């Protein structure tokens, strides 16, 4: 489930500073990062404008919809 704590990828360990975490906690931490780095589009809050660190971690483009985040995080979790 979403609350299950599992090992995360090397990139995930570097980004979050943890060895393992739940998908729920990853989403919470992702939003802390997005808000603290002011990465939401001021015009359209659903859009995230990733900085270089986030782009590299999520392997994403210059603009993502917030609904894409769970799918972009998925490869960082053990199956």
From TrEMBL:
CDD domains documented for this protein: SWIB-MDM2_like
What Pfam families is this protein classified in?
Answer: SWIB
The family database entries (InterPro entries) matched by this protein are listed as: SWIB_domain, SWIB_MDM2_dom_sf, SWIB_MDM2_domain
- Which SUPFAM superfamilies did the record assign? SWIB/MDM2 domain
Give the PROSITE patterns listed for this entry: SWIB_MDM2
Q: This protein is called what?
A: DM2 domain-containing protein
PANTHER family linked: SWI/SNF-RELATED MATRIX-ASSOCIATED ACTIN-DEPENDENT REGULATOR OF CHROMATIN SUBFAMILY D
Q: Where is the DM2 domain?
A: 1-79
Which top-rank group of organisms is this from? Eukaryota
